[in-house]
Amino acid sequence: MKTIHYPQASSCSSVVVSEQTRLGVADRFLSTKVVTRAPLLFRLARTMTRCRIRGGNRLVGILGQLGVLDVVAQYQLGRGVNFSVPLFRPDTCWDQRDIEDYEAGLIRSFCRLLEPLSDVVLFDCGADIGTFSALVCSRTSRVTRVIAFEPNPDVASFVRRNFAQLPIPSKVITKAVGSFHGTGRLEVPAYDNSDHARFLVPGEGPLQVVTIDSFGLRGGDVAIKIDVEGGELEVLEGAAKTITLARKCVVTVEANPRVAMRTKRDPVECLRFLQSLRPFSFLIAETEESPLTSSPIIRDGQKAIRNVIAWTL
Known about the structure:
Rossmann fold; globular
């Protein structure tokens, strides 16, 4: 998923506070203020950046150094969904507009494909702080339960907080998800040191690894979002029974050129696996193209990250 990077903040600011909450983020801080609106100068800086006015990113960096961004902003989305965003974290230094524009093509197409379904259970694999699930739940009533997987301990408090604010039942699993039950560790690639780029390395490590099939969901309508930096095929392999026995199913996987280069595996392998389970149709959310399983999804020279959506016929 897309990431917006800014320099980290350093100390608390004097903006108007609605409450205080204690959030366990590794070697970062002891407590953080929660505000109902992002700081004014930060909103101005983000607007400048979107309008291609020079100095916007620089202003964000200055605000971070001054501690103005040492807050958690709680944004109100549609359908009664509240969403908390740690502004001090480079991966989530977002204002309200950033949230509303987040993966716009993917969210729009995903929700549209959910419309014919009912009582959907959404598996959010690689949930981070819950942005995808929050936006989907804010724009459709078809999802009635969410099961989220996020193995990064640094965001555990945030993801739990955000899923607890959803107007539907949810469960946060602080484990990795794959094709086996066991252990592993998260590793950072050389090309990106952000939280969003960490990937699972199976073997000895502090993380537990589980499968979607182990949750025993058989039948009914299912949606699966997979953003696990190269382990998408393994997640699908560990969800084969769930997908096969679902009444209807919608799946989305990320197609990241840098990840494909690292893993030496094109996301078309995910599409081929799904087709081996049952008939699916496919769509690239950002371009609305219908990819074929006979050729790679990622083209020569492609740099943009895409998202492929699959749905049962």
